Structure prediction request, 839 residues.
Amino acid sequence: MTPEITLLIVASALVGSTIWPYRKPAIFVAAATILVVLWGFSPESLITMEIMESLLIVFSLLVLSGLLRYSEFFSFITKGVLSRARSEVAAFLLLNLVAALMSSLAATSLVLLYMVTISINIAREYGLNPKPLLISMIVSSNIASISTMVGDISNVIIATCRGFSYDEFLVRMVPMALPMLMGALIVQYLILRGELRGELEVRPHQVTVDRSYLHYATASLLLMFFLSLLSDYMGIAESSVMGVVAIAVLFIGGERMKEVYEKVRWEILLYIGALLITAKAFGLSSAPSLIVSIQQVSPLHIFLASLGLSAFIDGAETAAISLPVLGRLAVNEEVWWSMVVGTSLGSAISPFGSIANLLALRRARRMGIDVSYREYLRISVPSVAAASLIYLLGGVL
Amino acid sequence: MRLRLGNLLFVLGLVVSYYFGYLRGAGVITEEQLRALLVMIATFLLIATEYRHKVVAALAGVTALWLLGILSGEDMIHFLDMEVIGLLFGMMVVVSALKVGGFFGKITSYLSGLGLTGMQFFFVMTSLTAVLSAFLDNITVSLFMITVGIVLSRAMGINPVPITVATASAAVVGGMGTLVGDPPNIMIAAATGITFNEFLVHMGPIAVLAYAVVILTILLIYRKHFISERREGVEIEGQLIDRWITAVGLISFAGAVALFVLQDITGISPATAALYAAVITMILSGDRINDILKDVEWDVLIFLGSLLVLAGGLEKTGVLHLIADALVRSIGPNEPVMVTVLLWISAVLSSVVDNIPVTASLIPVVAEIVEEIGAPHLWWTLAAGAGIGGIATPLASVPMLIAYRTLEQEGHKMSFWEFTKIGLILLAVTTLAFNVYLLLRY
Prediction:
């Protein structure tokens, strides 16, 4: 087994998952199995604590996002916020901010789909044009996802592998994410201002929900957030804290949790697990040394490289496969942070940048809203360019 | 009902705590062993009483082991047997593809055309399952046969419960007959150097006896169902929904089985073979992949993983070894009593936790005793006990777990206790038969 063949297998998996995004689990299970068999790795050498920690966080987020969805939390918050909007511009901004906040708290990949569905319905109800709103929400969510450790699967992968804590992430990234998000929203407003001129009819906030279920979901979200924030202080890994909270939420919630539990898309765990095992096998082989020919790597290089790669390959895949390569270069911490930003911003550029984008656009298409690449890029590219510029001005340079 | 159950659990908890607290005070059991045991008992009760969804209860048990410091993250990875999980996942994908493709409908149509009576169908299914399980892994066999059994029995107007329980039981007992049929057999052979033929000569008759006893007992328990509900000779129309997916599923299935059989030559483990099959199925299934993955029983995989970790807690703390050692050694060098006690201990322990950690804990104990008193048939006793324990509860073996879960999914839900009640009857009768056989033969 030569490193060249390993590289070819990993590259094929990445290309394949971009061409056939809905077959990602199969592609990475195939890649992992082939690498494990060809290199003869034992399961013990591949299934490391970092991988288990990442999977535990994804498991917790799946439970949380499922709970928020079935308790109508997203719908309640979105309609509640929208009831305060008096103009289309205000509605546009508020919906973007809600999507951004939700994505940063419970992973874009898991939240965006629900948020987009609700927002399209609401937009139609209020007579807004859903298409620009949909695109801007996808872009804003991806940009905001850099602010927390759980904002994006790529953040989870990088944080668990590099040992970044939840509060460290928050303290470091929120001050960056806020101006970047604001910059992107301003650019989006400038692009869409011609379409956002109407007044909005004031409607009372009326959503029929099971209040106790909603409160339970809200309490679970807050509990997971605050305990994750305190995990470093408590000396317990974030994954453990989140895992315990998720299991406690399922346990205490009783019968109502059946819906959450049985309808969660567990195959996401398979995809992430297979991806991480592929990356681990890739790292254990000598293939990364083929890529590592450059001696000096600056945060700017990594930011630009991850931005470019993530525009075409899923951000999580970019992060997972880059980890063993950068690990061999013994780069400093700044490089990893620039990768966090690069992968998340890159994910916003094109529909291929993240499985969340693709799922959201597919759902929109099923709801009768067909977004062309041109329409998407018209909003995403200037927005990401503005966010990148703000990041570069404020950080790397 | 909830209140009564709560009271029962509370009283039981007090009794257990007092008893084990006493044992700890007497220095018999350590603090850590006591905790691990109590967590296991509590989890078992939560699952048994269906107080919470079984997967949530099992995950809570794992969390408790971690919170109590009994198992670390690394320990959990260690005890998460990827061979078992990988094999189950791989075969689930293939069986799911066959379901999506409509293969089971077609095969049901074919079998119904043979004009088998309910009873003939019952014997054909169970004997075929037992024979296949002797040579193939019983996860694959039970996944496939249980699905066929349910579809066909429902179409024939027969209650699917007896055939499902019997098929899963046949998968468990069939595996006992050969060295490769059941993981405990492989472990015993590895520890002792017993050959395939020796295993077949000694364990073959035990497996046949077990099959006969289990089937007769099930027929006796469900005799009314066969008499009152059967509609014989019913022909069912079945069309393939998707020929391509069916073809892919069948080729993958055949490939996996071929790799299982050729394991000695290829060196490819069953889990890897199953994963190959799953990968081929997933890659070639096109847009149907989402339907296939949706049909995979993720909760069974998570449940099984949690059970393996829970059993790992007992293994790590040495509770299993402690119980087995204390009980077996308290008997003295009386061979018939030794056979009886070892058989029942291994059967009972294997009915609560997976038989792999039970066998691992008992092998050193049995090895010492065999060396001391020279009774090699204790190895067959251990193999028989560890093997048959898997029949007692849905937690005890993967075939029974699959049967329990599939019945629930197909709308024939049995409560944990209903299922376990049948399992315990089967366990008691079969172990008794083994006991008599072992005492007469050796």
Summary: Residues 3-396 of chain A form one domain. Chain A has a mean pLDDT of 86.
